[in-house]
Amino acid sequence: MIEFIKGFVDHVTPEYIVIDHNGLGYQIHTPNPFIYKKSKQDEIIIYTYQHVREDILALYGFQSREEKALFMKLLNVTGIGPKGALAILAFGDPSQVVEAIENENDTFLVKFPGVGKKTARQIILDLKGKLGDVAALYGPNLFTHEDMEEKQTANTALNEAIEALKVLGYAEREIKKVVPLLQEERLTTDQYVKKALQKLLK
């Protein structure tokens, strides 16, 4: 098992990033790949989970061990796969997810792509009362953007955000509803994604 990878961000796509570690490129799926754009010049550590199936060998990466721990707990829920768990983590505020589980708020949980009423109830059944160790380690803001580089234009950032939302499983008709609200501001791709997710989850 690969616990973490230390290296430089070589490439960022809506679905994954590529980390250059001593000349070897690791393709790593992350909840929101665009948060790593600001790190292209810096060596980073990404905590990884290796997902192995008969037809799949994939790496999933996270900013912290706590984020990784929540991902692994979600994977233990019947009906939740890696893509579904990433979509939940992409919301960027695990404390709200934990709160929804503890309060049995399935109305909040079904707003995530791929999570229906039955799966939401299963998440609550499997995880309620078992997330205290993870929740205690999260701050109020999992992702901060104070020093985010603003090299791309707003239009490019918005287009990238739309592609990221599609990768997360949101339908085009859902995305079209929030695009006009996003166009009101000039944001980075990551900020567009987070704002879109906040509106889609309302």
TrEMBL record:
Domain Helix-hairpin-helix DNA-binding motif class per the UniProt entry, residue ranges: 72-91, 107-126
Description of its domains: Has three domains with a flexible linker between the domains II and III and assumes an 'L' shape. Domain III is highly mobile and contacts RuvB.
Key words of the record: Cytoplasm, DNA damage, DNA recombination, DNA repair, DNA-binding, Hydrolase
Entries under SUPFAM superfamilies matching the protein: DNA helicase RuvA subunit, C-terminal domain (SSF46929), Nucleic acid-binding proteins (SSF50249), RuvA domain 2-like (SSF47781)
Segments of this protein annotated with the region Domain III: 153-202
GO-annotated biological processes: DNA recombination; DNA repair
Main location: cytoplasm
Subcellular compartments: Cytoplasm
Similarity-based family: Belongs to the RuvA family.
An annotated Gene Ontology molecular function: hydrolase activity
Superkingdom in the source lineage: Bacteria
Protein purpose: The RuvA-RuvB-RuvC complex processes Holliday junction (HJ) DNA during genetic recombination and DNA repair, while the RuvA-RuvB complex plays an important role in the rescue of blocked DNA replication forks via replication fork reversal (RFR). RuvA specifically binds to HJ cruciform DNA, conferring on it an open structure. The RuvB hexamer acts as an ATP-dependent pump, pulling dsDNA into and through the RuvAB complex. HJ branch migration allows RuvC to scan DNA until it finds its consensus sequence, where it cleaves and resolves the cruciform DNA.
Annotated SMART domains: HhH1
Protein name listed in UniProt: Holliday junction branch migration complex subunit RuvA
A GO term from the CC aspect: Holliday junction resolvase complex
InterPro entries (alphabetical): DNA_helicase_Holl-junc_RuvA_I, Hlx-hairpin-Hlx_DNA-bd_motif, NA-bd_OB-fold, RuvA, RuvA_2-like, RuvA_C, RuvA_C_sf
Quaternary structure annotation from Swiss-Prot or TrEMBL: Homotetramer. Forms an RuvA(8)-RuvB(12)-Holliday junction (HJ) complex. HJ DNA is sandwiched between 2 RuvA tetramers; dsDNA enters through RuvA and exits via RuvB. An RuvB hexamer assembles on each DNA strand where it exits the tetramer. Each RuvB hexamer is contacted by two RuvA subunits (via domain III) on 2 adjacent RuvB subunits; this complex drives branch migration. In the full resolvosome a probable DNA-RuvA(4)-RuvB(12)-RuvC(2) complex forms which resolves the HJ.
Xref: HAMAP family: DNA_HJ_migration_RuvA
